[in-house]
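Page 47, continued from p. 46.
Same chain as before, 321 aa.
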Amino acid sequence: MSGNVPVDPETLARVYRSLRLIRRTEEEIARIYPSDKIKSPVHLSIGQESVSVGVCDVLDADDVISATYRGHAAYLAKGGDLNRMMAELYGKGTGCAAGKAGSMHLIDMGANVLGMSAVVGTTIPVAAGYAFALGREGKGRIAASFFGDGATEEGVFSETLNFASLHKLPILFVCENNGFAIHSPTSNRWATERLCERVRTYGIEAKELPDDDVFAIREAAGHAAQAIRGGSGPQFIECKTYRWREHVGPGEDYDDGYRTRDELEAWQARDQVAATGAMLDLAERQAIDDEVEGLIAEAVDFAEQSPWPEPEELYSHVFAD
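Result:
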């Protein structure tokens, strides 16, 4: 765990809290989902939390992120409002998109979380466009774009890499490579698995991380962010990771024939939530766990007690003011 990456106590506690909050929030979502209280399909990040946490921990509060429809982890890691996220899943008017968007379209511009999208790859150019604006602004802010391995097969991925490199945009591209586009493994989709090699042809520095060690990800993201702020232009990180649950929904899919439970167990053996927690003093870990449980209970209560959107909400955000 964390190899030779030094970790100070404050960082350790903060990273564990973020990992634990995401894990337990999604486990609670999975528990509630069969009740039909949650009105939106959910794509859970259980098992993949360390990518969002490692990257977001080195970003500044005024940096922006863009994520995918599997975006609970990135939303929470960047400081998105948990109460409003839960209310959005419930379809309530107090949700982060007024109950109209659901799990796949989270947004919290107060935390600089750009709106997410259910369409694969579409948030990549949006993040680049925001990065273009940040570069013009000239205040040293950067954007981070999270996407899955399947999104790298979309034409807009290559188009955006080229544009970002050409204009030296202040953007960090983060590929959460969990090995599958829904049920199709990369071996069935990619002629070679040398993704970083392909990215480098655009003149972009690219680093491949072989697993989801949260502190190794944090270190790589920190170096990349520093280089971007120094004027390097875009940087790219490929993080190998693994989703524990089914592609969409709260259950498992190891009987579907496209992956094995042995594969899951290999990743669970190095679970970053457990491994990071084990590095803490027991009393400190328990205090964080208790805090997290309280926050989640509060968020669920907030969602359940919140009102449904007013009918007039259908007409808001249709046209620009």
